[in-house]
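Dear H.,

Thanks for agreeing to be a second pair of eyes. The structure we're designing against is below in token form, covering all 588 positions.
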């Protein structure tokens, strides 16, 4: 099965880790610094707008206080008795025009009944009745009053500064009319960006100056803003209050700055779209986002390339490790063959000795002649025996070469019972030298397993040799069993040897760990077995009692096809003589 998906998953995991480790600090820093910069910039813009509004607020307030002071000076210095004279009023008005230009539109004196008895100005307002005018009623309560911008009797916008003066024991009113354009020009100077504009309203959201655009549809919104922000300003929570709302007319988010004028009766209002007010911030933010995205793309690209390269190096390292493992397995296999050498030599020596004996017998018969007695029949028998023993030698050498050939990791369906019988026969001669009796108990019809035959040969040979070593020289019994349980096949190899100390049970599968004397073992056998079994999707366990024996149990998953092995004889170690009845061992 190809392991490409494993390395692809490894590359993805490394790419995700590299990207996360690289991007997390960058994104964290970007978000934190972006938040702090945005907050600082907005505070700076808002502070600038507050300062701008307050500056013009103070200019308008100073202008009004200056005009009120001038009217008060007239009332106090000239006196009410002189002011009711037409010539005096005209003279004072001319003096005001010369000093202040067109700010003072006209000047008049109104008696206690509300009738203007003296007037100087461009309009025919001599004798005008102001008894019902709001400003006339208000000045009686306050003594000095500055009205809202009104149209009044003249039909043009203006506002009035009214002052109570004493004339013959009665409270008359000195009335000065001022052109609203004087304060309108002061407010129109506030222009920032494309949407910034300023204006003055009273508490009822009635405009006291002319906005640069029609704001009829926003009167209700202004009224609500003045009710919130205006009260905060008047109560001292900030001389200029800032409110951000959605404009129902334009549908855009708008920033309002409000500051009270004329003792809270008027308000200086500045408004601007937030997109316009913070345009520079948004541009910088967009540039920052673009740089961040570019950096993210570069980091992801680098993470992709590095992860692919690292995964490839891991794949190459794994391939080299597999090659080394194969070499280690091969070395272990050759070591096992070396351990079997004595038994194999004896196994081949017997049929060779028989063939030599039979060849000498044939030579003697030929010297006597084939015509004598039944020499011809005896020669035929001897030749048959020689051929039979030669076939036996060929079978032994074929098994040895088959086992000693290079490990073939090809996975195929196989029957474990057949393999157990083969390996039991293969190790029988060595077992006899060690006084070990091999018994097999193989369950009929166990499912086939998917495994490499050569690797399973290595597993069984190592376990059988280890069991024989554990019982040498005293001898004992070696039992090999197979059974099927659930969807698995189990192979058990138990011996009656010296056993394994409990302290060593946790380490027996570690590479180079061995309890054999120096020079008797490499410590790789069980490690190789563990790796082979795990690669096949199985596992191996061990139980051991010192001086009683050890049992290794292998679990292998059954083949998915569910095919079962054919029933057969489970006994091994009881071979019929291959010499046709002449079973004596010679030359051994």
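And this is the sequence the design step returned. I haven't edited it by hand at all.
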């Amino acid at each position: 099965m190809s392991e490409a998906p494993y390395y692809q998953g490894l590359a993805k995991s490394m790419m995700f880790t590299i990207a996360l480790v690289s991007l997390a600090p960058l994104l964290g820093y970007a978000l934190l610094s972006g938040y702090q910069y945005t907050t600082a910039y907005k505070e700076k813009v808002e502070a600038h707008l507050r300062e701008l509004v307050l500056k013009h607020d103070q200019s308008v307030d100073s202008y009004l206080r200056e005009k009120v002071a001038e009217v008060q000076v007239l009332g106090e210095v000239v006196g009410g008795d002189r002011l009711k004279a037409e010539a005096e009023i005209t003279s004072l008005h001319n003096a005001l025009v010369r000093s202040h230009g067109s700010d003072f539109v006209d000047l008049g004196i109104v008696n206690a009944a509300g009738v203007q008895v003296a007037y100087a100005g461009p309009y025919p307002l001599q004798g005008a009745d102001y008894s019902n005018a709001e400003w006339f009623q208000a000045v009686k309560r306050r003594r000095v009053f500055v009205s809202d911008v009104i149209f009044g009797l003249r039909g043009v916008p203006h506002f009035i500064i009214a002052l109570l003066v004493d004339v013959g024991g009665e409270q008359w009113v000195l009335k000065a009319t001022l052109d609203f354009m004087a304060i309108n020009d002061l407010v129109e100077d506030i222009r920032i960006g494309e949407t910034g504009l300023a204006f003055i309203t009273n508490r009822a959201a009635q405009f006291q100056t002319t906005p640069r655009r029609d704001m009829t549809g926003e009167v209700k919104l202004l009224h609500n803003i003045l009710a919130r922000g205006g009260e905060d300003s008047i109560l001292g929570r900030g001389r200029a209050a800032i409110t951000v709302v959605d404009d129902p007319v334009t549908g855009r988010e708008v920033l309002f700055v409000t500051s009270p004028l004329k003792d809270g009766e008027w308000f200086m209002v500045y408004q601007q779209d937030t997109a316009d007010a913070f345009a520079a911030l948004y541009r910088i933010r967009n540039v920052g986002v673009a740089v961040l995205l570019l950096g993210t793309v570069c980091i992801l690209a680098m993470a992709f390339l590095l992860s692919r390269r690292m995964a490839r190096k891991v794949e190459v390292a794994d391939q080299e490790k597999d090659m080394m493992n194969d070499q280690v397995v091969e070395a272990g296999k050759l070591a096992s063959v070396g351990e079997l050498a004595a038994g194999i030599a004896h196994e081949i020596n017997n049929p060779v000795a028989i063939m030599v004996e039979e060849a000498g017998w044939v030579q003697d018969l030929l010297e006597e002649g084939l015509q004598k007695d039944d020499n011809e029949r005896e020669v035929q028998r001897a030749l048959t025996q020689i051929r039979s023993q030669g076939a036996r030698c060929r079978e032994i050498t074929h098994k040895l070469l088959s086992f000693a050939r290079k490990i073939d990791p090809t996975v195929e369906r196989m029957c474990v019972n057949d393999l157990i019988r083969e390996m039991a026969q293969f190790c029988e001669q060595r077992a006899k030298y060690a006084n070990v009796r091999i018994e097999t108990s193989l369950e009929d019809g166990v499912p086939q397993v998917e495994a490499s035959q050569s690797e399973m040969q290595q597993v069984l040979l190592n376990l059988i040799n280890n069991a024989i070593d554990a019982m040498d020289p005293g001898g004992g019994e070696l039992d090999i069993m197979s059974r099927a349980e659930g969807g698995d096949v189990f192979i058990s190899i138990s011996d009656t040897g010296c056993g394994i100390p409990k302290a060593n049970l946790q380490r027996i599968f570690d590479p180079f760990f061995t309890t054999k004397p120096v020079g008797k073992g490499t410590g790789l056998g069980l490690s190789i077995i563990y790796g082979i079994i795990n690669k096949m999707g199985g596992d191996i366990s061990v139980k051991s009692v010192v001086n009683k024996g050890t049992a290794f149990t292998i679990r292998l998953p059954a083949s998915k096809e569910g095919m079962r092995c054919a029933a057969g004889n489970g006994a091994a170690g009881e071979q019929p003589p291959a010499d046709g009845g002449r079973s004596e061992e010679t030359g051994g």
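Two observations from my side: DSSP finds 14 helices and 16 strands in the chain. The longest helix spans residues 279-368.

Warmly,
E.
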